[in-house]
Amino acid sequence: MAQSSQPILSTPQDAAPELPVRRLTKWFIQRASFAWIVTIAGLILMYILLNTSSLFWIDPNIRYYLVIPLLWILVAASAWWGWKYGLTEKPPFTAILFQLSFIAGLAQIAALLIAGLIFGFGDSPYTQKFPQVLGNLLYLATYIGGMEMARGFLLAHAPKRMTLLAFILVTLGFTALTLPISVYLAIQDVQSAFVISGKLLLPRLAENLLATYLAWIGGPLASFIYRIIMGLFEWLMPVLPKMTWMVQAFIGTIIPAIILVLINQSIAVHEEEPVKTAESSEKKEKRQVAFSWIVVAIITVLLIWFNMGLFGVRPYLVSGISMNPTLYAGDVAVIQDLPAREVQIGDIILYYTESGNRVLHRVIEIRDNSGKVQFITQGDNIYLPDDPVEEAQYGGKMVIAIPKIGWVSIGVRRLMGWDTFEK
User: Fold this and answer.
1) Which helix (H) or strand (E) holds 40?
2) What distances in angstroms separate CA 127 from CA 130, 133, 134, 175, 237, one per listed residue?
3) Per-residue pLDDT tens over the stretch 51-71
């Protein structure tokens, strides 16, 4: 008698219903490719919240020591989500990168301390009271952690064919995020633009350039170490170097550039692959990009110093017709700070009117006015002399003119409403 087989009812392990936590984890892993969008949106949202009155209804202590740190943790978490599950290749963080990142921060602090010994120190704007110090450390750690986790992830997420573009965009974008809106609103004219650029914009650009480079070659931990050391010095020191904006521009721009060059050289020495592989070519490209940005930063600082007259000469942009045919609109006259008594008849000088406008005209007569030099000037294209120019109004002598290189600046000035030159 044949025995009938009955189906055995069983519940395989795979058929068991998924737990909600496992289902949520699986959902996050599958959608990790969208983490870069969430990260960028988080950075933009944080900039808006920190630069507007959106959170002012919250008690200041709760806002700065709880809400904002939690928001930065969320930004870091979104970047970590993409870093963990959305990347196939990640830059390695080696012992040499740890050492170089640490030394980079210490070297920049050493430069600031030396500047403080030379120019003096001033009181820190940050509180040194114990409970608030702990809150400041929490704020600083979460802020830098969120920024650097986002920086490292966005760099690593960029396609290889767009690494150069990603490097540039991340450097510029994170520089913009570190400057409050009040800085941009403070730019009212050319003078304020140069001062703000030298004092804040270029140092922040150089710092972010170095941080971006470290994140590019070693991931977010490398840039975090560099920036947290700098942040701890600024937030915990009871006194900070008291420097003019020119010195700040030098220390904040040239020193990171020098450090970046030294890091490049150190990495090149420690590279063990003698043959030229795709990986070594990529590293070489990174060093070349970084070096190019260093050159741009240094040249920009030198141009700012030149414009401010720190080398004894400064440019003057001609935008009128009063000196035709000697000078035309768009020419740049180089003005040297020579003593008034060295000026001779026929020289072209710069002087300031009582209303503060600048005029560049030729000297046709020199008088002695109670022991002071007095100039009579006239434009080459004008038939009447100007009012007498007193020695206190004298602003320097033109030593050379470079034709037509200032037309771009004229266009920008007129577009921004900064064109206040003489006619």
Assistant:
1) helix 35-51
2) 9, 7, 10, 26, 10
3) 988 888 889 889 999 999 999
Which tokens sit at 395? 């602003």
DSSP structural state of residue 161: G
Sign for the pseudo-dihedral over CA of 323, 329, 334, 337: positive
Domains annotated for the chain, with CATH where assigned, are 20-307 (no CATH), 313-416 (2.10.109.10)
Strand order in the sheet with 389-390: 313-317, 332-336, 394-402, 348-352, 358-369, 372-378, 389-390
Q: Shortest CA distance to 172 belongs to which of 203, 135, 209, 122?
A: 209
Phi, psi (degrees; rounded to nearest 5) at 300: -65, -45
Q: How far is CA 249 from the centre of its chain?
A: 11
Buried b (16+ CB within 10 A) or exposed e, 34-71: ebbebbbebbeebbeebeeeeeeeeeeeeebbeebbeb
**CA atoms of 119 and 106, how far apart (whole Å):** 20
**Residue ranges in the chain modelled with pLDDT below 50:** 1-13, 15, 272-279, 416, 418-423
192's CB contacts (< 8 A; 6+ apart) are 186
pLDDT tens for each residue of 13-22: 454 555 566 6
Locate 375 and state its tokens. Answer: 């100039």
Backbone φ and ψ of 313, nearest 5°: -135, 155
Contact 277, 130 (CB under 8 A): no
Residue pair 222/101 in contact by the 8 Å Cβ criterion:
yes
pTM of the model: 0.64
The 10 Å Cβ neighbour count of residue 407 is 14
Distance CA 227, CA 210 (A): 10
Question: Which tokens is 145 given?
Answer: 């952690």
